[in-house]
Amino acid sequence: MLTSLLSLAIWFALICIVLAMLCCTVRLFVGPAAQDRVLALDTLWMCAMLLILMLGIRFGSLIYFEAAVLIALTGFVSTVALAKFLMRGEVIE
User: Where are the domains of the chain?
Assistant: First the structure.
């Protein structure tokens, strides 16, 4: 019973994450300002990382966790670069 409950919780979490990704994609394309688009992209990176983590829990493989760390680092660096570009107009000073 415990494994079926865990499996049900994982599937529910996966569905919620995919719905959040769809909402972020809509905000990314419709967003009225560039700041809204950057925030949507950052949230999309985070949802992708959570999706990979949930798949790692579902399949019981450690390679998914390493991929999630790479996605998190890439997302953080790109968000910082985009925010710096929007504030100053250049990334490298």
Answer: 2-88
Encoded tokens for 5 = 């409950």
Q: Residue with structure tokens 């790109």?
A: 78
Nearest to 64 by CA among 51, 47, 78, 74: 51
Q: Is 70 exceeded by the pLDDT of residue 2?
A: no
CATH assignment, 2-88 = 1.10.287
Instruction: List the one residue out of 70, 31, 78, 30 whose CA is nearest residue 53.
Output: 70
Model pTM score = 0.83
Backbone angles phi and psi of 90, in degrees to 5: -150, 155
